Amino acid sequence: MSQRTLVLLKPDAVRRGLVGEILGRIERKAGWTIGALELRTLDRGILEQHYAEHVGRPFYEPLVAFMESGPSVALVVEGERVIEGLRALAGPTDPIAAAPGSIRGDFGTIVRENLVHASDSEESADREIKLFFPGLA
Ligand code: GDP
Ligand code: MG
């Protein structure tokens, strides 16, 4: 079941020089390929749409401020069961709870600054890919 998912390497990952490390983990998964990739500082407009489900939650405003604070790397990854697979590679939202071996488990300590975003379902992936890469077929 080949799928596409939207991944963000968040500003903490870029600032800390972890782009190569994280992209390497994705590239080394057999059969997964990068279909689009861009370095970009996200603005409030795109973040409000991206994180629409979280508007009004206590962590929302600091999350947007963090996500605006420097460039992110946005990419589309394609391949076998890549939506579930990327969530597993990232680990759970809280990096302290995330298992060693996962990206968040290996590199993170702070819930907000948890290095990566990965779409959580086919519906989210479709919506997020259209939002970040509107020209992609
Ligand atoms: P994800 O799908 O694992 O990224 O998690 P969510 O969709 O629930 O939340 C989106 C992002 O908001 C997370 O990746 C964190 O960066 C941040 N976040 C979520 N929950 C919390 C929280 O309880 N506290 C803080 N500070 N940040 C949170
Ligand atoms: Mg989420």
From TrEMBL:
Residues annotated as the enzyme's active site? H117 (pros-phosphohistidine intermediate)
One term under GO cellular component: cytoplasm
**Where along this sequence does the record place binding of ATP?**
K10, F59, R87, T93, R104, N114
Q: Please give the InterPro entries that the UniProt record associates with this protein.
A: NDK-like_dom, NDK-like_dom_sf, Nucleoside_diP_kinase, Nucleoside_diP_kinase_AS
Instruction: Name the cofactor(s).
Output: Mg(2+)
UniProt entry tagged with the keyword rRNA-binding = no
> Is Kinase given among the entry's keywords?
yes
Q: Which terms are listed as keywords in the entry?
A: ATP-binding, Cytoplasm, Kinase, Magnesium, Metal-binding, Nucleotide metabolism, Nucleotide-binding, Phosphoprotein, Transferase
* Location (main, coarse): cytoplasm
Where is the Nucleoside diphosphate kinase-like domain positioned along the sequence?
A: 2-136
Q: What is its EC number?
A: 2.7.4.6
What are this entry's molecular-function GO terms?
Answer: ATP binding; metal ion binding; nucleoside diphosphate kinase activity
Give the reaction(s) catalysed. Answer: a 2'-deoxyribonucleoside 5'-diphosphate + ATP = a 2'-deoxyribonucleoside 5'-triphosphate + ADP; a ribonucleoside 5'-diphosphate + ATP = a ribonucleoside 5'-triphosphate + ADP
Q: Which biological processes are named by the entry's GO terms?
A: CTP biosynthetic process; GTP biosynthetic process; UTP biosynthetic process
- Write down the HAMAP family for this protein, in alphabetical order: NDP_kinase
Family recorded in the similarity comment = Belongs to the NDK family.
Q: What does this protein do?
A: Major role in the synthesis of nucleoside triphosphates other than ATP. The ATP gamma phosphate is transferred to the NDP beta phosphate via a ping-pong mechanism, using a phosphorylated active-site intermediate.
Q: What is this protein's name?
A: Nucleoside diphosphate kinase
* Native species: Actinacidiphila cocklensis
Q: Source taxonomy lineage?
A: Bacteria, Bacillati, Actinomycetota, Actinomycetes, Kitasatosporales
